Structure formats: C-alpha cells, structure tokens
Amino acid sequence: DADVTQTPRNRITKTGKRIMLECSQTKGHDRMYWYRQDPGLGLRLIYYSFDVKDINKGEISDGYSVSRQAQAKFSLSLESAIPNQTALYFCATSDLKGGPGANVLTFGAGSRLTVL
Amino acid sequence: AQKITQTQPGMFVQEKEAVTLDCTYDTSDPSYGLFWYKQPSSGEMIFLIYQGSYDQQNATEGRYSLNFQKARKSANLVISASQLGDSAMYFCAMREANTGNQFYFGTGTSLTVIP
Known about the structure:
Chain A is mainly β. Chain A has no helices and eleven strands. In chain A, 35% of the residues are buried. Chain B is mainly β. Chain B has strands at 4-5, 10-14, 19-21, 24-25, 32-39, 46-52, 60-61, 64-69, 74-79, 88-96, 103-105, 109-114. The A-B interface holds A 31, 33, 35, 40-45, 48, 50, 56, 58, 88, 90, 92, 94, 96, 100-101, 103-107, 109-110, 112 and B 4, 9, 31, 33, 35, 37, 43-45, 47, 50, 52, 91, 93, 95, 100-108.
C-alpha cells in the first residue's frame, strides 16, 4: 500500500457542487500539505498542517477549506466548485525528525479534479 | 519575487548524454534545503535529491547530482548518462526554516530524452 493515499484519484463535477478530497498517510508524519498543480505554474500550496490542532493557509487558500481529522488524515474541501479549480491536487507529508535531510516531501499519487 | 526560478520550460537530450537542468532560488534565510523532484507522465512526484544549505559537498544520488553554488544561489540538477525513462517534468523546490519550513516549487522543466 502507498504511504500517502489520496481519494478519489479522478473526479468530474459541476459548478457549485461541494467536493472533498481525502488524504491518509501511514508514515507517521506530523506535517501534511495540500498542493495544486496547473500546467506552467508548478505546484502551489493551498493549506498545510503541522499537527492536528495547527492549520495554516498557503499561497492560494481562497475557495478551499481543510480538516485535519487525525494525525494521519487531512482532507481538502471545495465548498462550491468553480471551473478554474480544475487541476491536479496533491497531498504530501513531511517530518523534521531525523534532521534536515529527512524533511523530504512525500507525495500522494494525486487527485485530478475537473469542474464543468 | 519568485522563490524558485526554473528558466528552461523544455529541454532535449540525446540518450546516454548528460544534461543540466537549471534552478535558482531566492532566500535570506541561512538555513534552507533544496530538492529536486521528477514527475513522469503518470503524474506521481518522485523525490530525487536533497542539498542542505550548510552541506559542503554537492549531493549525489546515482546518476543525479546537484551542482550547488551558494553564492550564485543556484542548485542545478545534473543527470548523467540519460535514459529514455528520464523523460519527465522536473521540479526544483526549496524549504526555508524561517517560513515555518514551507516548501516552494519552481514551474518545472520538461525533459525529453531522444533515442
């Protein structure tokens, strides 16, 4: 099984619908992140969480919300999806234990969302 | 200002040749880490190599090496003996200690290996 699992892998929805992307991890990492990838723009940070009680906005949080239900689970919600939220979404985890070299982002396989 | 700049949207390299993918970064934090990730057409993000700001030696991982020039704030990825499977998008990223260890990504370079 993958260390970081994202569901669903692909989703097509309509404008105005509420969508939840889920992420779970088995690495025991404290830190979890949601990124969005658009062609030509690289990866942009939406939200991140350093533990269950810590949620922080990233570069492009407008239109998104998150919930850290447990150390291992971090979900991303689009309350009312719009077409320009069509993108590839990545969940990632990291951990500072083990020194700076251990602080590598481990990514899920991605969730491709299309908003019509 | 962009934290990470990758100026090569697309690169081509002949199989078995070496190729350098450019990355420059912008930070005033003395403590930071630099990373390269590979994204094949299947979409997953694969970690390749890491360089810490205090590391004296350039990082190497198999056919990958990171040419770290601190004064120039560059962290170029060198892939030696290119293989067809190296065709992918490559992203440079930086983690800064003074921004809560957030990761910043460049826009990526698409590498195509020609047989």
